[in-house]
Amino acid sequence: MLTSLKPLNDKVVVERIEEEPQTASGIYLGHAVPEVSQWGIVKAVGQGRYTVNGHLIPLTVQVGDTVFMAKYAGTEGEDDLIVIKEDEILGYIREG
């Protein structure tokens, strides 16, 4: 069960935010092949990564952050969850 997965080191569990296939003018495309969403919500984070000197560098993203990921980043799981390395996250939005 991936929802209870605790990622190790610099890994992050992200739930993809699925987007409706839609044109720029707002027309829904129906049964078009959907693009892989690059947006997601962080569900779990690892403790961070270690330097060569053994110092722990904590992750930048936190549970609940909305992230923008590399297009084919990570390893797919179930229920639109993926496990990615933090360096595959291109940016994030933190509410509050």
Explain briefly what this protein structure is.
With 96 residues, the chain is mostly beta strands.
Architecture per CATH nomenclature, i.e. the level-2 architecture: Roll
Shape: elongated
Number of helices: 0
Unreliable spans are: none
Helix content: under 10%
Question: So what's the oligomer here?
Answer: single chain
CATH fold assignment: 10 Kd Chaperonin, Protein Cpn10, Chain O
| The named CATH superfamily | GroES chaperonin
Structural class: mainly beta
Biggest sheet: strands side by side, in what order?
6-7-1-2-5-8
User: How many structural domains does the protein architecture include?
Assistant: 1
Q: Could you give the order of the helices and strands?
A: EEEEEEEE
Share of β-strand residues: 25-35%
Main β-sheet description: 6 strands, antiparallel
- The level 1 CATH classification is Mainly Beta
Query: How far apart lie the N and C ends?
Result: 30 Å
Number of strands: 8
Mean pLDDT: 86
